[in-house]
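Entry:
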Amino acid sequence: MKRIIIAGGNTAGTIVANRLARKLDDELDKEEVEILVLNKTDEHIYLPGQVFVAFGLEEPAELKRNERELLDPRIKFLYGQKGTITKIDPANHSVMTADGSSYSYDYLVIATGAESNWDEIPGYKAAAVSPYEFDYALKMREALERFEGGTIVINTARLPYRCPPAPIETALILSDYLKKRGIREKTRIIYTYPVQGVIFIAPVNKPFLNLLEQKGIEVHSPFNVASVNPNQKIIESQEGEKIKFDLLIGVPSILGAKVIGDSGIGDKGRWVPTDKFTLRMKGYSNVYVIGDATDLPIPKAGSAADYEAYVIAHNIANDIKGNLGVRFYEGDVACYIATGIGTATHGKFNYTSEPKLMPPSQAHWWGKIGYNRLYWTVTAKAAI
């Protein structure tokens, strides 16, 4: 029997596990192949929906599911101490977990994701609410419901961070949210960004800047945070600028998972060196990397993991079954991006084509809402 281990769950791990199950349907039934998912928790959170929760546009319960219920029933799943990975050892084809167990594999898919680096900036964690973490999104929802006017700062701390357009989405939705509450004119919205502009993806910087300006949102960039004073409510940049705020919406930078650093298989940011076309870990023919765990030159976004899952599942199945041919990842990323409450745009790009944004429309908004709803039954379960 051949064993495929998926190291990590949530979006990337779940999608690739289910795609493998579809590709290896007969082999699973005949018990010629075992797919084992190891993850520290059995809770699956739909991260892109957190911004909707923060603004009261979605209920928190809609963002959570049980991981076991999403996985094909033939896939083995371990979580808690049994599933918390403490070391990945590609040289010896093994993965160790917190309960002291060691699992050998024929194929490994590293889906360990990314971790928010809240402690990078003094005072940041204590001062900010955020749509980037579930608990922080709930706090943001409560803070916005209490807010009656003043200065709101939306700050992106450092690069990299998850989902590059999300801070812009947050700012644009916030403006409409405050307008609906009748307090937009009482509120100054400041958008700060660590590099010049409003997003590091140059081809779409100008269109996004225009959208922010149309809603009267101030842009301060470059603004690299030096410290935050939670008591005085002051955020200060390395460039010497100080901004007094009433509410701080923070976007933390990210690192690769701690286990990548502990295992000595990542770079200084704890990202796994990954071939940009094959998605194999460099130097290993039976180890693949997916989603936020990679060091690929693309945004950390859920859609990338979905595209990557097709490639990885197909190529592992080809190794096992043969005669399927080999696929390559072309750097595809695509997403709906809210441009306020009720409108959205859509963008798609890859290694060779620059991103282009569609004109904001209500149709794209419903496309975004529809995708959020279909995530559980279509994307996560790899139904198509």
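The two ends are 27 Å apart (CA to CA).
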